[in-house]
Structures are given as C-alpha cells and as structure tokens.
Task: structure prediction
Amino acid sequence: NKIYNSFIDRKAKGVKSFAVLIDPDKVTPAGAADLAAKCTAAKVDYIFLGGSLVITSHLDECVQQLKSNCDIPVVLFPGSPSQVSRYADALLYLSLISGRNPELLIGQHVISAPAVKKSGLEVISTGYMVVDGGAPTTVSYISNTTPLPADKDDIAMCTAIAGEMLGLKVVYMDAGSGARKPITESMIARVASQVSAPIIVGGGIRDAEKAYLNCKAGADIIVVGNAIEKDASLIKEIADAVHAAPVLR
Ligand code: 1GP
Result:
C-alpha cells in the first residue's frame, strides 16, 4: 500500500500534494518524457494517468516512458476498465458514488476484477464524486449520470460520508476535465469537515491561486490536467502554491 500510505502520511503531516493529470490520448512518448522532466523539476508529487476516452493503445508505453524518465509515482485514473497497465504504481479503483449508474458503482468492477487483481497493482478504492462544472463535461456525458449540483454542499458531504462508511479509502471530487467552473471552496470545506479520508480535488483548476485556496479549504491532493496541457509553466507555479499551503486547516 505504498501510494495509499503516502497519501495518509502526507495528510497526517498536513502536507498538501500536487498531481499532474496526463491524458494518454494527448501525449506522445516523447511528450511524456518531456513532461516527466518538467514534473521532476517542479517537485510534483504524483502523476495521474487516464481519461474518459482512451482511444490510443499506447497506455503501457506511456507509463513506461514516465517511469523511465522520473521517480514520481504514476497512478492510473481510469475512465474505463481497459485502462489498466501493470507498469504503474497504483490504480484508483473508482466507484462513481455521485451517480446512480450501477455499471459505474459496481458493474464494471465485477467485470474487470480478475484482470485488476492479476495485474498486481496497488488498488486504492476511491469514492468518485462528479460535481456539476457549469456545462456538460466528457465525464458527465460518458458516465450517463447527473453530476452533483455545484451549490449543494450538504449533498456532497453526505455522499462523501456514505462513501467513507462503505469503506472507500479516498474521496475524489471532480468537476470534470476542462470544467468551466471548478468545485467551490465551500463544498470542499464541507466535505473535509466530516471525512477523514484523503480528499483529491480536480476539474477546471487553471491557476495557482485556486489550487492554494482548495488546499486551504481542505483538499489534500490537487489534480490539474487541461490547464497544464495549454501552458506547461503552470506545473511549477501550481506545485509551489500547493506546497506553500498552510499545514493546519
Ligand atoms: C479531470 O480532475 C481532472 O478528471 C482534472 O481536470 O483537466 O480540468 O484539470 P482538468
């Protein structure tokens, strides 16, 4: 449980983490090597790899490129059961608890369970909560679920508590990739006030200030994908802001 333990250790110390999300569809092997170097220079804590649609078949190659070019743990964030690579360090085993699509709560897990087990990957059970990001995102469309309303902090809190009590080890609050509106600090704070599991927050975060404010509100791991694809200099800016977030909340 190396990666999960690192989540817990960092949370216990109040140290916030920054994860760069790489979509295998949008990166070439050479691009992955370049990103690995930039992430190392910026002291990025985790690399998340995945997307709602993974069309390319070079997932293994992408993981291997990242692994051979940096020491940052690579964590799979799969949009579908096919996105499993045994070369990664861990897999976020997502149950979409904000939705009511049984396939994404348990159905696809049953189908993929033997392959995931055989992969030997560290599996981190994750309560995945998709929050309305102001316009339909790929994840809300593909998952065929209604996202959690952006202003209903209490529903988010109850969903996260239920997920934790069901035994899910991590909560991931996601406004969806490229979301017009990222998750509010008030929703993050409401969830953080009632849940002791590490809280991952992503979707539509475009600058260091929002990343910092999310950490202050109670996020433990900040994930950024889209904004970094557009401007790689943000990797260091956001990493510095996350690492500068106050130790106690
Ligand atoms: C999406 O949380 C991630 O699932 C990251 O979102 O690409 O908008 O940064 P962005």
